[in-house]
Amino acid sequence: MATIRDATAAAELERDGVALVRGFATPIECEAMLSRMEALVDGWSPPRAGGEVFRTDEAQARTTSDYFLDSADRVHFFMETGAVDPATGGLRDALSKQTALNKVGHGLHVADPVFAAYSFSEKVVSLVTKIGYTDPVLPQSMYIFKQPGIGGEVTSHQDATFLHTTPRQSVLGLWLALQDATLTNGCVWARPGSHREPLRRHFQRNPAHFGDPAAGVVADPAAPQMIFAKLNDESSDVAAWAWEGKMPPGGTSTALPSVSVSVEEKAAALRVAGFVPLECKAGDLVLIHATVDHLSLPNTSPQSRHTFQLHLVEGPDAGVTWSKENWLQYGAAADRAAFPRLRTDGAAVVLACDGGVVTAAGAATAAGAAAGEAEQETET
Ligand SMILES: O=C(O)CCC(=O)C(=O)O
After folding, report:
1. Residue 174, Cα to own-chain centre: how many angstroms?
2. Which atom of ligand 1 is nearest to the CA of 159?
3. Distance of alpha carbon 204 from alpha carbon 337, whole angstroms
């Protein structure tokens, strides 16, 4: 049942493009996801070479790989840049697996029973319904580690750049803190009100790489898999173009790598650009609108900042269509599967992977997906 808390969050989301729901998940739910991820990482075999890192800057389009594209409905492991030995492309010596990963994605909600139980839970369905979704479907989930010391920044972006729908942008981020998120371990920052600004870019499958028979374009495997298409003019009167896919001026030290910029200085620069920090306790949830600008700073502290994110969109019954140009597609091109529905009628959801079934009441069963059996692949 939707609560007053849900109604308040829905109103804040509409006004600011971002909202904080305190105590959304219980300590038991957070602990279940933390320990499940620890077990999944224990079972992961880090590559000895060519490890997959995850990055959010301009190079993201150039470096997207099959391992990334194939992660849509599976459990794939992406390392922190700082965890990779540049000489070998494998894990740095003496670094433990548990401290090496940037994120795990993007199908934990369909491939793992513990994450599925939360993802399709009644509390998630009620909240999303209160926000106004009538046919919510769940394409993506990810677990972000923000490792102590090496957890990298997430540059400023709008989620609809990566998860695009027509005729309107409908992606909603449900960012759940499994551990406290603070100014020093890299909490999320958002720019309230920016959700009313236009969407600036679309991260698209590159027809030059994949080919487009209808347009007579022959596939060229050497071309990048993804491109950023500009949806409005950089010279337009949109201040946010200055930090699109980057950090607002003063928010990062990468322009002058020799200069060390303190967290306080970066925070001050972010505030000047209109961003506010969203510090969370474990169990708090941040709601993120499709077009609100948001980012996070690197983790310079000794504390990790584990989070579990869902990204849902409106589905076909709400007259909304998932872009076939989006990076994230389930199944082979010829046989693309539909995304699982967040059932508002209490009916069970049959998961795309492993023959699992989950209900909003939270009782997840997933044939063949007991602890340690979720599909784990890594590129070597
Ligand atoms: O967790 C973070 O640091 C950023 C997450 C984010 O940008 C997102 O979920 O869209």
Report:
1. 9
2. 10
3. 19
Q: What spacing in Å lies between the alpha carbon of 135 and ligand 1's midpoint? A: 24
Q: Is the peptide bond before 294 cis (omega within 30 degrees of 0)?
A: no
Judge whether 378 lies within some domain. Answer: no
Q: How confident is the model at residue 26 (pLDDT cuts 50, 70, 90)?
A: very high
Atom of ligand 1 nearest to the CA of 144: 1
CA of 219 to the centre of ligand 1 (A): 32
How many structural domains does the chain have?
Answer: 1
Is position 376 within any domain? Answer: no
CA of 158 to the centre of ligand 1 (A): 10
- Proportion of the chain above pLDDT 90, given as a percent: 60
In a domain, 346, yes or no: yes
Q: What pLDDT shows up at residue 376?
A: 43
Range of the domain at 351: 4-366
Query: Cβ(283)–Cβ(26) under 8 Å?
Result: yes
Q: How far apart are CA 104 and CA 71, in angstroms?
A: 9
Q: How far apart are CA 380 and CA 377, in angstroms?
A: 10
3-state SS, one letter per residue, for the chain: CCCHHHHHHHHHHHHHCEEEECCCCCHHHHHHHHHHHHHHHHCCCCCCCCCCECCCCCHHHHHCCHHHHCCCCCEEEEECHHHECCCCCCECCCCCHHHCEEEEEECHHHHCHHHHHHHCCHHHHHHHHHHCCCCEEEEEEEEECCCCCCCCCEEEECHHHCCCEECCCCCEEEEEECCCECCCCCCEEECCCHHHCCCCEEEEECHHHHCEHHHCECCCCCCCCEEEEECCCCCCCCHHHHHCCCCCCCCCCCCCCCCCCCHHHHHHHHHHCCCEEECECCCCEEEECCCCCEEECCCCCCCCCCEEEEEEEECHHHCCEECCCCCCCCCCHHHCCCCCECCCCCCCEECCCCCEEECCCCCEEECCCCCCCCCCECCC
Residue 186 lies in a domain: yes
CATH of residue 131: 2.60.120.620
291 against 234, higher pLDDT: 291
Nearest-atom number in ligand 1 for the CA of 309 is 9
Least confident interval from 10-19, 293-302, 367-376 = 367-376
